[in-house]
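Quick one: structure tokens for this chain, please?
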Amino acid sequence: MIASNVLELNQKIRRRISEPNLREMLVGSIVGFVVKILSALCLFLMNIVVARTLGPSEAGLFFLGLTLITIVASIGRIGLEQVTVRFIAACHAIHDSDGVQAIYRKAVAWVAVISTLLAFTVWGSAEWITKTLFNQPGFEVVLGSFALAIPLVALYTIQAHALQGLKRIAKSMLTLSVLAPGAMLFFLMVNPVYSAREASLYFNISCAATLIAGVYFWMKSSPIAERSVSFSSQKLKQACIPLWFVIILAQVSQWSSQMMLGAWSTADNVAFFATAQRTAMLTSFVLFAVNSIAAPKFSALYAKGDMAGLEKTAIWSVRLMWTIAVPVLLFITLTSEWLMGFFGKDFKEASLALIILAVGQFVNIATGSVGYLLSMTGHERALRNNSIISALLGVALGALLIPDYGLIGASISTAAAIACQNLLGVYQVRKHLGFNVLMIRG
């Protein structure tokens, strides 16, 4: 009986994997998973070296500046990340090389102009931002230096998403999340620096090198256009503007607590929270790995009207995520103090914060690719509404909890906002696409 059940299960798995959509997603996810492991390692080591080399106070200024320019760079991308994946994937699926290049050129041009204007704005107002929002001595110089990275981060992120639309998963993920932290880690190891401003200069150089690599990857991977065509600006705006608000609100959910800590607490607490949050976010490497192949697949399946294939692909992606996410959460929960000790003995104070933030990231992973499902199928407004609710929740909880509970209050508000957004995403997928991504049995 046992042998018969094992044989039946093996045949069932073989039948599922033999299906083209699931096979492509599985192979692509494995490639993405390997690259994301490398990314997680680079990020973790970079954060450790920054924290241990700079110390809590200077590391707090570095992470505060890094977070602020991350938010501004996301604004400069005007929601084009997922739109670029969606339209390039759809054109690539029907071998429309002219359309692929037209979308790429327009997305890069828009982001270059807007992110550069934002960079000059931040650089020119660094003193005002520091005095008005943050009571952190020395932050003005750090922020002014970091401002140079805004267009670099915005542009290499668009490069990565364009490559994702072509299903060049390894190159996309290298550009998005490996090269910059890897280069930063290299610089810090070869020639250590001891101030946030000097570290920010290393970051700028790392981002410039990453952008150059991303452009090179695109030139080697993209199809050659037979003729120069223009992609509709109106169509692009209609898709990206709702997502722009989604991206901004997602940044609010993710980083507002750190900003409030910067305004109401010490640089040390900012460093404790930043290292705990960035460590917890490493647990989502499985989500990024699966999404890297799943997102363009969702777009292609929906464009073909294959709703059965869309549902099956989405649910199988969740199964892949659960397989890895549960052990990772247990590991972090059981070893949180040991993990935070890598950053320095003072950082062990953030062990409980790490557990709270890891739970929020687990909900993010366990609910699957609901954000991509909605954006790749034209339901950007539903995604926007979810982001509004979760961002408001995160800010409200942060304002309520951080003044009295500091680090723990920031962790609770961030985890709650992330969990809320993804649980709302499960509801919206069920409402608009007709299936429940959490029905992973069977």
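The chain has a mean pLDDT of 81.
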